[in-house]
Design brief:
The complex is a heterodimer of chains A (270) and B (316). Chain A is mostly helical. Chain A is 76% helix and 3% strand. The longest helix of chain A has 37 residues, at 102-138. Chain A is globular. Chain A starts with a helix and ends in a 5-residue tail after the last helix. Mean pLDDT of chain A is 88; it is low at 223-237. In chain B, the strands form four sheets. Chain B has a six-stranded mixed sheet, sandwiched between helices. In chain B, strands 13-14-12-15 form a four-stranded antiparallel sheet, covered by helices on one side. Chain B has helices at 51-58, 101-112, 117-125, 141-153, 171-186, 198-204, 222-228, 240-249, 269-278, 293-301, 311-315, and strands spanning 2-4, 7-9, 13-22, 25-35, 40-44, 66-71, 86-89, 159-163, 190-194, 207-212, 215-221, 232-236, 254-258, 261-265, 285-289. Chain B has eleven helices and 15 strands. Chain B is 34% helix and 27% strand. The chains are: A mainly alpha (270), B alpha/beta (316).
């Protein structure tokens, strides 16, 4: 990486550090992870749900992956904000005056989004440490059994945060309008994908595992048949392997970014 | 491109055959002009004349339909480390409102590879040191304009491209900006400034480029432009009717501007004086009325296009 390109990445990270939106997004990740931790203590005993320490491998992985919902919602939103803030506040003008090569600017934003996405992932695991483990101990659970799930869950979950942030940046590059970008990022995850899955998978029996959320489930689920994405036993067997999920997310992120670059990012800045 | 102490000095801005179309609207139409170093050049035109579009093309923020725009012989995108060579003020809104002023400049310094100490220098230069810790969203328009200027000066560039830099400044601020630009030009920097404040521009600029409807109307030193423009003679006389007849016979078109005063357009003292003397007309006062920048500007641009019909306005 050339020195000017490295400076661009540093400047993009500086932008994150000096605006409240990026920190708020980390706060929301912590909050959602806290909710995820709480719900992972609602476990089934003899067919009845009650609050208690998770003991099975599946339930422990759910606890370890309590930041999953935060990942699929907030990481794309962060990516959207990374690029649409430039348009909303016209900072892109200042950015391009300092570095006119737009592909470099977009590349720097990809790397900065990925780095901040990683930070969000770390924040979610910090929550596991400061809230999940004490709660587990309080409920008489085994910390050692929980830590056994670090290997299967943590790398995939962190990768999911990184790749979903890049995917969000791709959406932001395509859409440009901040509010529309956030709505698209969240709407695709929470509304559109379930509809597509229902229509094409359940009715037409088509393979929808390459959709972003399903790919994230595969990646963040570790080797579990029923990972933190909450894939039920009946659907778990059709998820991709973790590495195919990672590839699918890379394609989504890079694909949307490249399409956005050629369709909108190269346009005149007025 | 002359380089002194690592920074560009005396880079000439050249616009050649520049055309920019937005669909059916032609915002800039075969525009050509040159901006010389060591001088302040005013870029004038009514709203929608194509000034901002031209500046944005100059800075590679927009692509031309045809033509070229170079600074020191290079397109903006081909200038290595452009912040060290060209500084620009384009709009007073290019800030994140939640970011502090110092952080905004530090962000620019990081991206441009400049020392952080330079941030303090430019903050002091534009008089914002005491307010540097405040969020830009709390700034007045004038303070934002100063912050924009600080950003433009961050790399100590040899060329400054300024779009309405005095917008929002109070009279003291405008006078301060005028002195600053004069000082920067005296150092050999190239300064291109667009503005609609003609009286202020008349005090500031050395050269003018006047555009309307995206086309060049005039270019040259301000002094020559105003001198070459048509002058008039104002004559106060107890015989306005007789003098009017004499002037008309001599080929002028005198206009009464009062009960005892005539304005003889196109006349000079050398031509009208003998005419008055040879005809024995009594006069109380004869004054040459030279055109100022505003008169020249209005003469060149009025009736070209109403602002509401202009290309840039139509685009928005």
């Amino acid at each position: 990486m050339t020195e000017p390109a490295l400076r661009l990445v540093r400047a993009e990270l500086f932008k994150f550090r000096t605006t409240p939106g990026a920190w708020v997004s980390i706060g929301v990740v912590a909050l959602l992870t806290g909710l995820g931790i709480t719900t992972s203590f609602i476990v089934a005993r003899h067919g009845v749900a009650h609050f208690g320490a998770p003991t099975t491998t599946t339930d422990l992985r759910r606890l370890m992956g309590a930041g999953y919902t935060a990942a699929i919602v907030m990481a794309p939103v962060l990516g959207v904000l990374c690029i649409t803030t430039e348009y909303r506040h016209r900072i892109l003008t200042a950015t391009l005056l300092l570095h006119p090569k737009r592909s470099d600017v977009l590349g720097a934003k990809v790397l900065a989004s990925a780095a901040w996405g990683l930070l969000m992932g770390v924040a979610s695991f910090v929550m596991i440490g400061i809230m999940g483990i004490p709660l587990l101990v309080a409920e008489g659970g085994s910390v050692s059994n929980l830590l056994d799930q670090v290997g299967p869950v943590l790398p995939g979950m962190l990768a999911a945060y990184v790749l979903l942030a890049v995917y969000g940046m791709g959406i932001g590059t395509l859409v440009r309008n901040q509010i529309a970008g956030v709505i698209v990022a969240v709407g695709v995850t929470l509304v559109l994908e379930p509809i597509i899955v229902a229509i094409f998978s359940s009715l037409a029996h088509m393979d929808v595992n390459f959709l972003p959320t399903r790919a994230t489930q595969a990646l963040a689920g570790g080797l579990s048949a029923r990972g933190p994405g909450g894939a039920s036993a009946s659907t778990a067997h059709v998820l991709l392997s973790w590495w195919l999920g990672a590839i699918a997310l890379v394609v989504w992120g890079v694909g949307t970014t490249v399409i956005g670059y050629f369709t909108t990012f190269r346009r005149d800045v007025v | 491109m002359a380089v002194v102490d690592g920074a560009v000095r005396g880079a000439t801005i050249e616009v050649r055959g520049l055309t920019k179309r937005f669909g059916a609207v032609t915002a800039v139409d075969d525009l050509s002009f040159t901006v010389e170093p060591g001088r302040i050049t005013g870029f004038l035109g009514p709203n929608g004349a194509g000034k901002t579009t031209t500046l944005r093309i100059m800075l590679d923020l927009a692509l031309p339909t045809s033509g070229t725009c170079t600074i020191g012989g290079r397109r903006y995108r081909d200038i290595p480390e452009p912040a060290r060579h060209v500084g620009a003020v384009l709009e007073a809104t290019s800030f994140h409102p939640s970011r502090r002023a110092r952080a905004h400049l530090e962000m620019m310094a990081i991206e441009a590879g400049l020392e952080r100490s330079r941030v303090d220098e430019v903050l002091a230069l534009v008089g914002l040191t005491a307010d540097a810790h405040r969020k830009v969203g709390d700034y007045s328009l004038g303070m934002r304009q100063r912050l924009q200027l600080a950003g433009a000066l961050l790399g100590d560039p040899g060329v400054l491209v300024l779009d309405e830099p005095s917008n929002g400044l109070d009279p003291q601020g405008i006078a301060w900006l005028r002195d600053l630009l004069r000082h920067l030009a005296s150092e050999g920097r190239t300064i291109l400034e667009s503005s609609h404040l003609l009286a202020e521009m008349a005090l500031t600029v050395d050269d003018v480029v006047i555009v309307s409807n995206g086309q060049l109307r005039a270019q040259g030193p301000l002094s020559i432009l105003t001198t070459q423009a048509q002058s008039s003679m104002r004559v106060r006389t107890p015989e306005p009717g007789r003098l009017s007849e004499i002037a008309r016979r001599a080929g002028y078109a005198p206009r009464p501007i009062g009960s005892d005063t005539l304005l003889v357009d196109g006349a000079t003292p050398e031509a009208l004086g003998p005419l008055i003397a040879s005809n024995g007309v009594v006069v109380y006062e004869v004054v040459q009325v030279s055109q100022d920048l505003e008169s020249v500007f209005l003469e060149l641009t009025t009736s070209m296009t109403a602002p509401s019909e202009s290309p840039e306005m139509a685009r928005r």
